[in-house]
Amino acid sequence: MTLWAFFDESGWHPTGGKLAKLTVGGCVAPCEAWESLTMDWSAALAEMGIDMFHVTDFEKRNPPQPPFENWTDQQRKDRLDRLLEIIGMVKPVCCGFTNLARPGDDTAAGNVL
Q1: What is the largest CA-CA distance in the chain?
Q2: Does pLDDT of 108 surpass 50?
Q3: Could you tell me the residue ranges of all domains in the chain?
Q4: Which of 55-69, 71-85, 94-108 bottoms out in mean pLDDT, i.e. has the lowest?
Q5: Considering only Cβ atoms within 10 Å of each terminal Cβ, which end of the chain, N or C, has fewer?
Q6: This prediction's pTM
Q7: CB 86 within 8 A of CB 44
């Protein structure tokens, strides 16, 4: 069996620019499942009239970010539900972590990245 994984990160840089919090999350599933997800995901995005879906832009409401700025609340809910359903059909193993850097600790991931 061959597995495929997808991970993404998000970081918080308070005043001073050093990374204070790093969060990584992702999913692992068999390659065949990811192939199916990719096809279903692409079809769903095409139906929605968008090229990609980035949750950061989707969640920004003030001001709304393209291409989501003209979606009604119901469209937003329905379309997000559809994408989450596609992910759920894969039945991936999901995991994540957050690392908080301690002030003055140069060995913490937040201070060496």
Answers
A1: 50
A2: no
A3: 3-100
A4: 94-108
A5: N
A6: 0.74
A7: yes
